[in-house]
Specification:
Two copies of one chain form a homodimer. With 233 residues, the first copy, chain A, is an all-alpha fold. Chain A has a domain of 132 residues: Orthogonal Bundle (Tetracycline Repressor, domain 2), CATH 1.10.357.10. Helices cover 58% and strands 0% of the residues of chain A. The first copy, chain A, is built from eleven helices and no strands. In chain A, helix 4 crosses helix 5 and helix 5 packs antiparallel against helix 7. The radius of gyration of chain A is 22 Å and the shape is flat. Chains A and B meet through helix 7, helix 8, helix 10 and helix 11 of A and helix 6, helix 7, helix 9 and helix 10 of B. Chain A binds a DNA duplex (19 and 19 nucleotides) through helix 3.
Chain lengths: 233, 233
DNA sequence: ACCTGAACACCGTTCAAGT
DNA sequence: ACCTGAACACCGTTCAAGT
């Protein structure tokens, strides 16, 4: 609702940090993550690349801002980071937090790769971790065990698993039966696994093998392990 | 031992793929990983950047080659990937393989970040995974469980843990007691953890919190969890 | 106060040309 | 067969200049 007192050429809403960051998320959502360049982002906003620097320190600041936008989505989905947790049931509380974060990641499949480039945590992120840590503490974890827990979970606390080799999805190298037979001589175990296990839930996927069942398996494995560690402490 | 029949100006050993890759590892070892640029690599070899392309397809090929060099080191440290494993004791066999890989990573702290950029596995890597998988299978894992195991372990099978936020070590933001008091009001749990847990084994470290004890904790947590899963299968 | 043009210092990479 | 010079298409970023 811009009042247009001037004789009506386009209103031209002035840029702002908020608009820049919102556009950045949009650019990333629409293209791949490498399409998020300063020049590209400027174009999306109908402006020259250099204008961005008036509102944002540099590209790193853009990426940090994008992360905060994602965290805001998670916070909203959770109804705040500091929801009162059922003290004893840290496990389902954690599980819920993490799987909610994962829903947000599934909406922005490029987000994990941005998280991976960040070196320091923004205030919102710190709050997120404070919430997780609080849940653990109230669930009976020592600080030491809680610390181990965070590291053992790694990126899973944010709802994604960092994968090592995720072949691009141009899928040039479809494996056919003839190849399998050939490989089977030298790689019996791998071929055995490939023929026996299959992934077929395309909707819950964040890259290669990170689908819902895979993610949950590892998550529960770790949570169960932690549970045993408190019990025997 | 270059025979120098020509009147003696520098022998000038001709370039080769091997020399290029060896130089690449050297450049990475000496500087940070971002010092590994084509121009920089060329300079190390006393040659123009464009000459590299005669021996190597592109930068991706250089990085793939560097990975293979690391894998060769691991293979050597292990005495081959296919060492006969004590069938039953998959756990110590796996543990040994992984901690040996980790020793190599500690010699090349930049290596994890290169692994993280790779999208497809080279033949040597495939062999490494075949070996791991074989160990699991011989230890009684179903293919399905073995598959889950690989994903749950993630980068840990190669001896490093992918960390999410590793603050640069210029350490500009030393935390002093005054700040801690101030933070304590809003972040009681985090401050509690920071003051209680400390890392002090600088030699076993691969970035921020990935030190030997942290790594082993998570590794054993997962291995123990897997052990339970076979038993109850 | 907000935006821009021209320019810089870096990338990886090509291609025709040199020995 | 092996190496190079000049050039291209991209980055992020600066700075003085425009309105």
């Amino acid at each position: 609702m811009v009042t247009e007192t001037e004789s009506g050429v386009e209103p031209r809403i002035p840029l702002s940090k908020e608009r820049v960051l919102a556009a950045a998320v949009k650019v990333a959502d629409e293209g791949a993550i490498d399409s998020l360049t300063m020049r590209n982002l400027a174009e999306e906003l109908g402006v020259e690349a250099m204008s961005l620097y008036y509102h944002v320190a540099n590209k790193d600041a853009v990426l940090d801002g994008v992360i905060d936008a994602i965290m805001a989505e998670i916070e909203e989905a959770l109804g705040g980071f500091r929801v009162p947790e059922a003290g004893a049931d840290w496990k389902t509380a954690l599980r819920h937090r993490i799987l909610t974060a994962r829903q947000v990641m599934l909406r922005h499949p490029w987000a994990p790769s941005v998280f991976e480039t960040r070196t320091t945590m923004s205030p919102v992120l710190v709050l997120y971790f404070e919430g997780l840590l609080g849940t653990l503490r109230e669930g009976g974890f020592s600080y030491d065990l809680a610390h181990h827990a965070m590291h053992a979970l790694g990126s899973r606390v944010l709802g994604f698993s960092q994968e090592l080799f995720r072949p691009e999805d141009d899928a040039g190298d479809e494996v056919n039966d003839a190849m399998l037979k050939e490989m089977a001589e030298h790689l019996p175990y791998l071929v055995g696994m490939l023929t026996e296990t299959a992934h077929d839930d395309p909707d819950s996927t964040l890259g290669w093998c990170d689908d819902e069942t895979e993610f949950s398996f590892a998550l529960d494995l770790i949570l169960d392990g932690l549970e045993r560690r408190i019990e025997t402490a």
